[in-house]
Amino acid sequence: MNIAAILADPDYPELKNYILDQTGLAYYTDKDEDLAARVSRRFAAIGVSDCSSYLRILAGEISPRTEIHQLVGELTIGETYFFRQREHFDLMRERILPDLLDRNQSTKRLRIWSAGCATGPEPYSIALLLHQEFQARIKGWDVSILATDINIEFLARAREARFGEWALRETSAETRAACFIQSGRDWVLRPEYRKGVTFEYHNLATGVSPAADGEPFDLILCRNVIIYFSPELMRNVIDNFYRCLNTGGWLIVGHAEPNLEMFHSFETVSDLNATAYRKASEIAGEAASAAFDWQAFERKFAARPPALEIRAAPKQLLPEAPVPSIEDARLLADSGNWEAATEVTRKLIETDALNGPAYFMLGLIQEHAGAPEEARAAFRRAIYLDRSFALAHYHLGASLKGNREWEMARKAFRNVLQILDGRRGEEPVPHGDGITIGELCELARMHLDLAGPQARSSSESR
Predict the structure, then answer these.
(1) Which of 24, 141, 174, 206 could be stapled to 108 by a disulfide with Cβ–Cβ 3.0 to 4.6 Å?
(2) Are strands 142-149 and 109-115 parallel, antiparallel or unpaired?
């Protein structure tokens, strides 16, 4: 059955809805030709001739290796590599893992979940990081890394721990020599670095924990996975991550994930050019408050005092109140003082109405506060003041996409690519907390793919 015949089948809408409901892959909501092409390959593989018959097969099988799993293999992409987005591994090495090892010293137990692990580079990268940087500290500990995915073919490949050159493109020659065995054109991870890493099937759309014992995790990674879900499913998945974490546990998501409003239950922590989310405890909350003396900050940036009653005093001799900076606002936001960050940002705008970065910062804060319309207005103001503000275009596009304003979202992401076209990929993006031009372009292209089939233009393929 060819693609046109599948799309013309009266039962195709019902089949499509069933597939999206079962997998959560909202990516295919407006990509019927792509979905039909992948479905057609399964039709040919099992000898099905119409959508109704295929739907009955999908809905009727219950064994672990059902047809739905085979279809998922056609629908998902597993391209990934070791130490992808290295800034996340820097954050784990310098802050997250030391915090967890200190916190769990009494139990000597560390539980990590890699959700949407694809063919395995992410969980194995975590295992390598633990062995290379914390081997002495975790001696005698019960360390487990549970890696899950909806694609059973990916899981089978992950268990083999066999990788090609492309998956190791960010792995040093020293690590290759010490941790892998070369086998022809492939590299096989040594058994000692696979110990404690297990791979299991799990569908994030179910909203349940993958842990067989029901015990919570200390660290969850789910990078560039939930971006393929609908906004409602995104929220459900993030809420489930919160429930699956120990108090004080950490969540790491990809740069392309939804806006901060989705993570309102977490404490946001930005450091070392990366952002993570922590399930804060009362103690952690007190520590975060103690880390920044807001009363002292308010005293420093109090409103200008009234003019002195000295008529002859020249105006320039009157005391000037110090002006806060964008970094002050960022510090407040990173420590969880969102109201204070808002106040500082508004003071910046009052001082200089043409301060584009301040409007951009205000937009980020409004996103976190769950005020998307106000956030979009702030991003647009930042763009009005600086048409080349690529990061403002990007966040505006992400917000518009979340509001299903597809055409405007596509325009915003195309603007990002046009602004950055021809610039060096390793160059950092202004106000991007370390994200590079290459990474931002990659994210913009990913969002364009998610925002509609006709999104691409010739400038994006360069």
Answers:
(1) 141
(2) parallel
Q: Residue 349's closest CA among 365, 331, 362, 364?
A: 362
What tens digit of pLDDT does each residue of 185-223 get? 899 999 999 999 999 999 998 889 999 888 999 999 998
b/e code 264-300 from CB counts within 10 Å (16+ = b):
eebbbbbebbbbbbbbbeeebeeebeeeeeeeebeee
The residue type at 337: N
DSSP state string for 94-140: IIIHHHHHHHTTTTTEEEEEEES-TTSHHHHHHHHHHHHHHTTTTTT
Sign (positive or negative) of CA dihedral 185, 191, 192, 194: positive
- Structural domains in the chain, CATH included, are 3-75 (no CATH), 86-287 (3.40.50.150), 292-305+322-461 (1.25.40.10)
Report phi then psi at 49, rounded to 5. Answer: -115, -10
Q: From edge to edge, which strands make up the β-sheet containing 162-163?
A: 162-163, 186-189, 180-183
What is the rounded CA–CA span in Å between residue 413 and residue 434? 19
Chain-centroid distance, C-alpha 386: 27
What pLDDT digit, counting tens, does each position of 97-123 carry?
A: 999 999 999 999 999 999 999 999 999
> Scanning the structure block, which residue is given the tokens 């959508």?
51
